[in-house]
Specification:
This is Histone-lysine N-methyltransferase SETDB2-like. By secondary structure, the chain is mainly beta. 7% of the residues lie in helices and 22% in strands. The longest helix has 11 residues.
């Protein structure tokens, strides 16, 4: 394809790292100058950068309806704690030492880790992902010998690279739009938040706090719960960062000998309240592939983690529900290969 020629040119000109294949688009529907309209009044642009310098690309805040602002929160561009602090298992099951920027999927151990459970599906193609991989996507990690600036298997870990804008809708609360056209399969951002540990006891269920968008995701029980009322107590993990940022809620349900996390279901709020909660449930563990055995993890039904963005999170906490979505979710492993703790990443679906 043309992007293969682009990659070869970047390699031969030694400019790979300064430019990446995803900086190029050959889709005739993509218009580089097609940007979201500028506000008619400077007063409508409430924030030039909602992240206040935390993100590498500014996230603007726009409201042309009533001038109100979202509730205060602290911006966090990454999940906390990182997976390396959460996992008690070996952090990485494979590492690579590619010298070609991991452009050859056949020789990159990390790409093969992804393809081993993906069947006929494909991993990144020129740093774009065309469809979700139910078995997860494994990026090259900090222990890999490949050059980070040239690696074609490092996308999500690079963080936000597109220009997003949070804006107020007439009847759907806050939402997010991109200020530029994007190719299909482009990485947008992750769902950042604080990982909380849940403890269950036989009392009354805890109430969920309302969140900022109008979405609501129901919890799907993956095992038989004990009879009688239950109480859910959510507590932060022991390691707490000195700085907090805004986030969203995503429970990670852990089942016995089941590892892969996938998003379950969405339920639109009927009362128009600003609430959004995402649930991620377990899928069957990946079997051995390509001669490599997957790391073993033992979980009990009582173990459960939540990705909480109610008080700390990133721009994804404002993503809105749509019956015709233009994004899809992908579990991506960057700082650990423990299937309990993927990053939840958003990619364009069209």
């Amino acid at each position: 394809s043309v992007l293969i020629e682009v990659l070869q040119f970047l390699l031969q000109s030694e400019s790979l790292g300064v430019l990446q294949p995803d900086n190029f688009s050959f889709d005739p529907q993509i218009v580089p100058e097609n940007r979201a309209r500028a506000p008619a009044s400077a007063a409508l642009l409430l924030e030039r950068d909602l992240s206040r310098g935390i993100e590498p690309v500014p996230v603007s805040l726009f409201n042309e309806l009533d001038g109100t602002r979202p509730k205060e929160f602290r911006y966090r561009k990454e999940r906390w704690p990182h997976g390396c602090f959460l996992s008690a298992a070996p952090l990485f099951s494979v590492c690579c030492d590619c010298t070609d920027g991991c452009a050859d999927a056949r020789s990159c151990a990390c790409v093969q880790q992804t393809l081993g459970g993906a069947g006929e599906q494909q991993a990144y193609r020129h740093q774009r992902l065309s469809a979700p991989l139910s078995t997860g996507l494994f990026e090259c990690g900090p222990w890999c010998g490949c050059a980070r600036s040239r690696c074609q298997n490092r996308v999500v870990q690079k963080g936000l690279r597109v220009r997003l804008q949070v804006f107020r809708t007439p009847d759907r609360g806050w939402a997010v739009r991109c200020r530029d056209d994007l190719d299909e399969g482009t990485f947008v951002c992750i769902y950042a938040g604080v990982v909380l540990r849940q403890q269950q006891s036989v009392e009354e269920p805890a109430e969920r706090e309302p969140l900022v968008s109008d979405d609501e995701v129901e919890v799907v029980e993956e095992w038989t719960l004990p009879a009688g009322p239950m109480e859910t107590v959510t507590e932060p993990l022991d390691c707490s960062p000195p700085l907090y940022v805004p986030v969203i809620q995503s429970p990670l349900a852990q089942l016995k000998d089941q590892q892969q996390l996938t998003v379950s279901s969405l339920d639109c709020s009927q009362n128009g309240s600003e609430a959004c909660e995402e649930i991620v449930s377990k899928k069957p563990r990946l079997s051995e592939s390509n001669g490599r055995s997957q790391p073993q993890h033992k979980h009990t039904p009582e173990q459960m983690y939540y990705l909480d963005a109610s008080k700390e999170g990133n721009v994804a906490r404002f993503f809105n529900h749509s019956c015709e979505p233009n994004l899809f979710l992908q579990n991506v492993f960057t700082d650990t290969h423990d299937p309990q703790f993927p990053l939840v990443a958003f990619f364009t679906s069209r």
